[in-house]
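Following up on my earlier thread - several people asked me to post the actual chain instead of describing it. Fair enough. Here it is, all 130 residues.
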Amino acid sequence: MKKLVLEVPAMYGDHHVLEVRRILLEAPGVETVDASSAFQIVEVGFDPEKSSEEVLRQRLDEAGYLADLQVPMESGIPAVSPDTNGGTYFRHSAAYETVGNVIAFGQAVSVSGRSLWPCPGMGPVQTMDD
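Reply from S.P.:
Thanks for posting it. Predicted structure:
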């Protein structure tokens, strides 16, 4: 059995661990898959006569797990006025006397039938009517 260790930048949650394990365990010759979303690393044990490193990398790449995670950046424009640069993403902090020293963050996100973060293995959000 051969071992392969891969960095998987887009595996940042436990639901991704389940999907990565499913994708790799469906490949012929794969015997073990140990994945960690905390470290974004996958260790795969496979039979080199039935599969190869290239095949396993390709399966994860096609599912979107080997690409860098795209995270929206803050615009730097305060939330007290509309964004004049045409951007739609901003965050603001708010302090309330009743909560003391706690700082909260708010974010305006438009609803477009998609998950809030780019999430490999998950398509658009669907309703029961769809």
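The first helix runs from residue 14 to 25. That should answer part of your original question.
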